[in-house]
Amino acid sequence: MIYLDNNATTQLDPAVLEEMLPFLTTAYGNPSSGYGFAAAARDAIHLARERVAALVGCEPGEIVFTSGGTEASNAALHSALQLDAQRRHIVTTAVEHSATYRYCEHLAKHGYSVTFVAVDRDGNLDLAALEKAIRPDTAIVSAMWANNETGVLFPIEQIADVARGQRVLFHTDAVQAAGKVPMRLRDVSVQYASFSAHKLHGPKGVGALYLSRRAVFRPMLIGGGQEDGRRSGTENVAAIVGFGKAAELAANSLGEMQARVRATRDRFEDVLLREVPDTFVNGNREARVPNTASLSFAGIEAQAALMLLDQQGICCSAGSACHTASLQPSRVLAAMQLNEERINGSLRFSFSRLNTDAEVDRALQIIPRAMGKLRALAGPRASRGESLAV
Ligand SMILES: *Cc1c(COP(=O)(O)O)cnc(C)c1O
C-alpha cells in the first residue's frame, strides 16, 4: 500500500503510540483528582500543552484541548456569536473545510448571516472583498491558513490586519498549516486558531483551540470546568499526550517537511506533468504547503481513477474525503471557477515525512499507466483532453 492521502489523516508515529500507552493502561488516573496517582496524568497534559504551544508559537496557557479540529472551529465561531448578541454576521471564505463551512451554513439557517468571500482561479483570497464584507454587525472573520484540498496558503498576517483594522475577531483554521509552515501565533493578530492531531501523525479525536490570552472566550461545553473552564469534560489523556508528542516531532521535522517532502511533491508533480499529457496543477503553485499536489487529468473521471489506483495499492482522494462517498463535485475547486471536466478529473495526492522515495517511484510508474488506461477506455475525445485547458 502506498499512502498518499495525508491531508485526510496520517499514520500514527510509533513514538507517539509509545508515549500514549501508559495512559491507556496503568496511568489511568483522572487528571482532576488530588492524589499522587493522578499526578502523572496531570503532568503529562502539562507537557503536551507546552509541546503544542511550542509548535504553534504561543504560550501553553493559550492552548485548550478539544476533540479535534471540527470542535475547535465550531467553538471559535460559537464564542464570537455569544460575546455580543448584536453581532450576528460572519465573514468566511468559499473554500473553508466543512468544519467551518457547514457550521456557517447551519448558522445561516438559524437567524445569522454569513458572507462567503470568493477566491480566484488559483485559490487566492480576494482581500479587498474580504475587507468590504465586514459590517458593523460582523462578529468574526474566519479564514483557513492552508487549504486541505489544494494546499493553497492564505495571507494570514494580512487577513489578521484587516480584521484588526475593523475591530473584528479573527479565527483561522490552521489544521493543515501546523507542522507544514513556520508558525508564530504570538506575532499574528489572531484571537482563535484551530488544530488537529491526526493530520500530523497524532491520534484521531483530539485537537486544540488556540485562545489568545488577550481574547475573551465563551465556552461551548460547560460542566466540570476542565481546561480552565474553557472546555469541560474529563480530558482524553492518552490522546492529548499523543498530540503533544506528535507536535514535538512535527516541530523537529519542519525542516524536513520544507525540504525533502517538498522536493518529493515537486518531483511527483513534475514527472506527472511531463508523462501524462493534459495534466494541470490546481491552485497557486508558489503559496502552497509543501506536501499537497492537487492535479487535474483531462478526460478522467476521478471516481474511476480512485478505484483503479486503489486496486494498485495507491490511496489518494478526489476533492476532500468527505465528498468522495457523495459524488458531489468538489466545492473548493468549484469556488475556483474550474470547469466541470477539470473538477471531475481532479485527484489530490498528499505526502508526509513517512513516505519513502521508493514508494513515490512506484506511484510514478503506476499513475501514468492508470491514466492512459482510463483515457483509452473513455475514447478518443478523452485522450485529447478537450476543453480542459480553459
Ligand atoms: C481535517 C480538517 C479539519 C477537521 O479536523 P478533525 O480533527 O478531523 O475534526 C478541519 N479543517 C481542516 C482544514 C482539516 O483538514
TrEMBL record:
Cofactor(s) needed: pyridoxal 5'-phosphate
Swiss-Prot/TrEMBL keywords: Iron, Iron-sulfur, Metal-binding, Pyridoxal phosphate, Transferase
Family matches, as Gene3D superfamilies: 1.10.260.50, Aspartate Aminotransferase, domain 1, Type I PLP-dependent aspartate aminotransferase-like (Major domain)
Domain Aminotransferase class V: 2-362
InterPro entries in UniProt: Aminotrans_V_dom (IPR000192), Cysteine_dSase (IPR016454), PyrdxlP-dep_Trfase (IPR015424), PyrdxlP-dep_Trfase_major (IPR015421), PyrdxlP-dep_Trfase_small (IPR015422)
Domain of life: Bacteria
Molecular function via GO: cysteine desulfurase activity; iron-sulfur cluster binding; metal ion binding
EC number: 2.8.1.7
Catalytic activity annotation: (sulfur carrier)-H + L-cysteine = (sulfur carrier)-SH + L-alanine
Family that this chain belongs to: Belongs to the class-V pyridoxal-phosphate-dependent aminotransferase family. NifS/IscS subfamily.
Functional note: Catalyzes the removal of elemental sulfur atoms from cysteine to produce alanine. Seems to participate in the biosynthesis of the nitrogenase metalloclusters by providing the inorganic sulfur required for the Fe-S core formation.
The protein's name: cysteine desulfurase
Organism name: uncultured Chthoniobacterales bacterium
